[in-house]
């Protein structure tokens, strides 16, 4: 569990997150929604230690993280396979067989040896999802992972994310108009002006 208690974050004198109290539990999928600038990305950054709170407590064990936050930086002139191979070489947790397994999960196995610069936006998004899940992290943080996906790939990725939720904390920040209708999400958290203003349990 990740426990946030009275979290405040100020950047350059401006309040970005305000009095955030929340427990994120394993086995659940969370939707973070809210208007542009409401603090969704900042909350994700805080959860994976990219930023630290100005005040308040974060209580959590030493988790591993898979993240998509802002643009994923793949080397455009390399293939998907060599990009993922390079990323996997940092932690040395997985081998090429596992990379290929996850490439097939996001429907990219047939394009593994195509240079990323030839990928469409949706394919790049699926590659980013692949990169985030391939090391089977405890916590999956996905910022706007669905934007460019067509209906078929959207539904397949949604089903897939649902299938891996056991023993994992999954938090997805997204605008999508009808996303909250999906049974995918166990809890829907609405943010506004850096605060959590509504919580809905599915
Ligand atoms: N590097 C930064 N320095 C100062 N303020 C920042 C920085 N990055 C973001 N902010 C501010 O933090 C606030 C929250 O931004 P955040 O990116 O978390 O919003 P968001 O809910 O993810 O928005 P969006 O839906 O547009 O992605 C905004 O007011 C933004 O202007």
UniProtKB/TrEMBL annotation:
SMART domains xrefs: AAA (SM00382)
Domain ABC transporter: 2-199
UniProt keyword terms in alphabetical order: ATP-binding, Nucleotide-binding
SUPFAM superfamilies in the cross-refs: P-loop containing nucleoside triphosphate hydrolases
InterPro entries: AAA+_ATPase, ABC_transporter-like_ATP-bd, ABC_transporter-like_CS, P-loop_NTPase
UniProt keyword annotation of ATP-binding present: yes
Pfam families xrefs: ABC_tran
GO molecular function: ATP binding; ATP hydrolysis activity
The protein's name: ABC transporter ATP-binding protein
């Amino acid at each position: 569990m990740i426990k946030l208690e009275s979290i405040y974050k100020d950047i350059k004198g401006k309040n970005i997150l305000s009095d955030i109290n929340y427990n994120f539990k394993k086995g659940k999928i969370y939707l973070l929604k809210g208007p542009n600038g409401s603090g969704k990305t900042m909350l994700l950054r805080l959860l994976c230690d990219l930023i630290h709170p100005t005040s308040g407590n974060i209580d959590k064990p030493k988790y591993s993280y898979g993240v998509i936050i802002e643009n994923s930086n793949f080397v455009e002139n390399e293939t998907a396979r060599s990009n993922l191979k390079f990323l996997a070489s940092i932690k040395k947790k997985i081998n090429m067989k596992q990379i290929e397994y996850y490439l097939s999960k996001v429907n990219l196995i047939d394009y593994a040896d195509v240079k990323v610069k030839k990928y469409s936006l949706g394919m790049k998004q699926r590659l980013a999802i692949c990169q985030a899940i391939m090391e089977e992290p405890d916590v999956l943080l996905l910022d706007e992972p669905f934007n460019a996906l067509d209906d078929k790939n959207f539904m397949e990725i949604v089903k897939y994310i649902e299938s891996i939720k056991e023993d994992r904390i999954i938090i997805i920040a997204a605008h999508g108009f009808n996303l909250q209708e999906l049974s995918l999400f166990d809890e829907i958290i609405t943010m506004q002006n850096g605060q959590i203003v509504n919580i809905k349990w599915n």
